[in-house]
Design a protein that fits this description.
This protein is an all-alpha fold and about 150 residues long. The protein is about 85% helix and about 0% strand.
Length: about 150
């Protein structure tokens, strides 16, 4: 009871007025990181479509989809996504001094983990939606892949 009122006053005066601007600042790098995940998924599926249109090879298509399933664990391809979030390092340094925010690396790591999880969900959903269509007429496969991609991105 003795601590509640001063703590409430401190939060109301020293933290709450800044929360909106802090969230806006932090959301820039986070949003661009997630946009990069979306862009990477889109690019990789487009490459699968283009490759299939050139070769019309169902076996190669299966290999490419299997490679897509490993995309979340491909650190080289995911690196540009993770780098977007590293900008949080500078933003959080300012918060650390002003608001005693600690464990900056943890915040960045968790955000990157969520990005990887999002990619895992995207490729899994893609594979689940596309899997029944693999035996379809090869003329329709590229269109089907595009439809599935758009559904996943939605």
């Amino acid at each position: 009871a003795a601590v509640s009122e001063p703590a409430q006053k401190c939060c109301t005066e020293n933290i709450q007025p800044f929360l909106t601007s802090i969230l806006e600042e932090l959301m820039g790098p986070v949003s661009s990181g997630f946009a990069e995940v979306r862009s990477l998924f889109d690019k990789e599926v487009n490459e699968i479509i283009q490759d299939f249109q050139k070769t019309n090879d169902i076996t190669k298509l299966k290999e490419n989809v299997d490679q897509l399933m490993n995309l979340p664990f491909n650190s080289v391809k995911m690196e540009p996504c993770y780098l977007k979030v590293n900008l949080l390092q500078d933003l959080l340094q300012d918060l650390k001094s002003r608001f005693k925010v600690y464990h900056i690396d943890f915040v960045i790591q968790r955000t990157q983990n969520f990005m990887q999880e999002l990619m895992e969900n995207a490729v899994y959903t893609f594979e689940q939606l596309f899997s029944p269509s693999r035996q379809a007429d090869s003329a329709k496969v590229a269109t089907t892949i595009e439809k599935v991609k758009l559904r996943v991105l939605k």
